[in-house]
Amino acid sequence: MRSISLLILLAATLSLQAQTLTIRDLTCEHQNNPLGLDVTVPRFGWKLVSGQRGTMQKSYELRVGTDDKALVKGQKILWQSGPVASDQSVLVPYAGPAVTSRQRYYWQVKVADNKGNSSAWSEVKYWEMGLLKASDWTARWIESDLPGDSVNSPAPMLRNNFTLKKMVKSARLYVTSHGLYECYINGQRVGDQFLTPGWTSYNKRLQYQVYDVTSLVTNGANAAGVILSDGWYRGNLAWENNRNIYGKTLGLLFQLEATYADGSKEIITSNEQWKSSTGPVTRAGIYYGEAYDARLEKKDWSMSSYTAGDWHGVRAVNVSNDNLIASYAPPVKKHETFKPKSLKVTPQGELIVDFGQNLVGWVRFKANGKAGDKIVVHHAEVLDKKGNFYTDNYRAAQAEIVYTLKGGGEEVFEPHFSFFGFRYVKITSPNKLTADQITAVAVYSDMAPTGNFTSSNPLINQLQHNIQWGQKGNFVDVPTDCPQRDERLGWTGDAQAFSRTATYNMNVATFFSKWLKDLAADQVKNGRVPFVIPNVLGDSASASTGWADAATIIPWNVYYAYDDKRILEQQYESMKAWVGYMEARSRNDLWNRGFHFGDWLFYRPNDDTDGRSAVTDKYLIAQCFWANSTQIMLNTAKVLGKEDDVKHYTEWLKRIKDAFLKEYMAPSGRLVAGTQTAYVLALNFDMLPETLRAQAAERLAQNVKDYDNHLTTGFLGTPYLCEVLTRFGYTDVAYSLLLQETYPSWLYPVKMGATTIWERWDGIKTDSTFQTPGMNSFNHYAYGAIGDWMYRRVAGLRETAPGYKELIIAPQPGGNLKNATAELETLYGPAKSAWKLENGVFTLTAVIPANTTAQIVLPDAADASVTEGGVDVGKVKSVTAMTKEGTSVRLTLGSGTYTFTYGMKQ
Ligand code: BGC
User: Which percentage of the chain shows pLDDT scores above 90?
Assistant: First the structure.
């Protein structure tokens, strides 16, 4: 009797659980509780969680208020949407009264689904506005009064005491600088962000940060202290002695706003009463590293008890605040830490530490010694063939730490104003450091990890690992080419090549949105897009095909991955200007002028091999990228409803393709350049008439086979190579490239021990010597663009409508893989494709997020009897359609977790 009632209870609970509809992961502008937004129409997002298959949102209701306690009671509502019949749950715009500076807004959402379930009101979330107008700033810009403060001088420190007369209810710090800053209040570091205020085109767009400093301030005497450093603002950039790009003098803008318990306010600002001095950071630079003399530390300098008797004054200067913007992208933070894998002495007698992973960040060490003892740390990505420390590929970047001990106990050090790309460090110190005293810290933009790919092949898994670490190391506030040598610039070509893969691995919506605004800001008036963003190379370093197209490709990719239409609106003029430039400069509809990098770092063997080299005509490439950018304009104009532009780009697209065929293709369909890249681009961008595509694909596949299943593509051809092969039915050839272990291939570096993606296919040659040190980075993400194909085709998980509102799971088993899994946290929730092939039985586990619909394409299933969860697939309720397509079966279905099984020939 008892067990029966227990069973009933259990069944009731289960069905209740299945019925429940809840909401999670509430975001505002892609962020969790953002502080300091300057977006005046913020957008909300949420995910539905439901135990029932086929769940769609039927309606939502939003409410916003400025009092969280009242809000949950449904009182003092500032704006409520009322029930809105809609399935939109991503980037839903706020439509209440105009937002105001500093205000914190609380919000909640509730939803109803198509199964008759309603959620409760969600937890309360908030967003807080930053300072929307230049006049919100009452702080003055201040600069140190110290003499000789412009080149290689110690980092200035600025400080002041201040009093807060009453009990503080909340306190915010709004702060930015010329140069980098690190800020302290009452002896404590403010926040956990590094390299602030980040890197933007400073003179046009300078970010400020907002910190909740309520817990750092106190009723009574307080003090603030800020250290400034050259950073990107005036440090060496791009090449030696190229400095002071944005200005010569470091400066601080600091505004702390305290709200007392009684509601009154106090504003503490940087002004001429502050004092300045120097301290332990005697030199710092992005490429240089950092010199720190602990003997020069000024104990308690950011405490109110400190006497700044011998400090200098500061200058208050008039600087326009019109360029100030709130931070939008994820801040740079510390992430993984690594303990030494080994400590060893090299043949040259140097003590080196191996962390086992090429990473970006720095080393934290603990040391004991006498005052004046020096610890010097150098960084390297690789050891040479003999096992010696190798730094030639850092070029002029010194990448060193010089730490001078103060003596008298254990000292712990981490740099403040630099970062390094390294796997190894060489440490020189009077007292040998032991492994437990050394830790490597990875530092990069704090993007939410969203995707993962694994398979039965450990080498492919290592490749995926390397791609992800390439992304971590090179997404340090801007997307950089490399993180170690005297470069580390926002190279546009590299970024566009990798952008689609990047959207799988991590949420890069705000990261790219911020950088694209800099792209627009730095774009030359006539539409040319600089090689690097922020542009530190001058306006003439611009307009290279495949690089400048970052202006169109990345906004489109970000829009498509996150259904973020605003990025298209935001970038539209910039996109249009770049395409307009090509139109204006073209002759006879050919874009065939000026300098282009071309298919950068394509396969170019030495003369002593067979003399072949995969050179692709640069103007042929340019014509393809022009067509692609025009196609993107056409698509974008459609999304934004710009009819005239749709017409304009439709006409141009035809002209561009016609001119391509005339100039670059023989009537037989053969291209004037017989390279893989030529065929890949022509096919990927639909340059050829449909009737000539199959033969072109065949030529491409043949070319791969002629090179013994090796790729020969560079930066521009590589991202689309496997995708094009799959699209035209040569997935087997694509697999042969993916699995190729000899040079040139993706797995060759893996076999050579790579833990990140290399700049060149043969950074380390087969005889273990290095490629030319002038250009040989071991952490360059561009070739990692293959990650996209692994998610999209091997596991088969991809979007068919923007933002994964509709998705497809169409695995393509092959390459002797026994299994592959792609997992992706979409804006609707987790999606997954996991297939395995075991003893002739194919199993696919598919997870489809609530509020989306999907198609599943089961390979080689046409003649098989397919079951889902043990039931004949035809009887599964949430499968709304099933069709045979050649040897596959295509299903249309709603959200949920499904497991399909059937016999498959191997
Ligand atoms: C960078 C690249 C960049 C290239 C331009 C190199 O120095 O590291 O990755 O795209 O120049 O061709």
Answer: 94
The CATH superfamily label for domain 2-129 reads Immunoglobulins (2.60.40.10)
- Measured between alpha carbons, how far is 284 from 416 in angstroms, rounded to an integer? 8
pLDDT tens per residue across span 295-344 = 999 999 999 999 999 999 999 999 999 999 999 999 999 999 999 999 99
Specify whether the CB–CB gap between 812 and 888 falls below 8 A.
no
H or E segment to which residue 413 belongs: strand 411-413
Angstrom distance (rounded) from CA 202 to CA 521: 10
Name the burial class of residue 718, with classes exposed (0-12), middle (13-18) and buried (19+) by CB atoms within 10 angstroms of its CB: buried
Ligand 1 atom closest to residue 494's alpha carbon, by position in its atom list: 10
One fold for 2-129 and 451-794: no
Q: How far is the CA of 547 from the centre of ligand 1 (A)?
A: 10
pLDDT tens figures, 111-162: 999 999 999 999 999 999 999 999 999 999 999 998 865 666 899 999 999 9
- Among 128, 143, 257, 487, the one annotated catalytic: 487
Residues flanking ligand 1, CB < 6 Å: 481-482, 487, 491, 493-494, 597, 600, 775, 780
Its CATH class, for the domain covering 134-326, is mainly beta
Protein residue closest via CA to atom 9 of ligand 1? 481
Domain ranges of the chain: 2-129, 134-326, 332-445, 451-794, 802-903
Nearest CA to ligand 1 atom 4: 491
Rounded to a whole number of angstroms, the CA Rg of the chain reads 29
Q: Reduced to 3 states, what is the DSSP secondary structure of residue 782?
A: helix
CA 491–ligand 1 middle distance (angstroms): 7
Q: Which helix (H) or strand (E) holds 41?
A: none
Q: Which two tokens stand for residue 726?
A: 């799959």
Q: Is the CATH number of domain 451-794 3.30.450.20?
A: no
> Is 689 strand, coil or helix?
coil
The count of C-alpha atoms lying within 13 angstroms of the C-alpha of 671, restricted to the half-sphere facing its C-beta, is 32
**Eight-class DSSP state of 416:** S
Q: Is 759 a catalytic residue?
A: yes
**DSSP classification of residue 454:** E
* Cis amide linkage into residue 93, ω under 30° from 0: no
> Which residue has the least CA distance to atom 5 on ligand 1?
597
Q: What percent of the chain has pLDDT over 70?
A: 96
> Distance from the CA of 765 to the center of ligand 1, in angstroms?
20
CATH topology of domain 802-903: Maltose phosphorylase, domain 3 (2.60.420)
641, exposed or middle or buried, with CB in 10 Å at 0-12, 13-18, 19+? exposed
The CATH homologous superfamily of the domain defined by 332-445 = Galactose-binding domain-like (2.60.120.260)
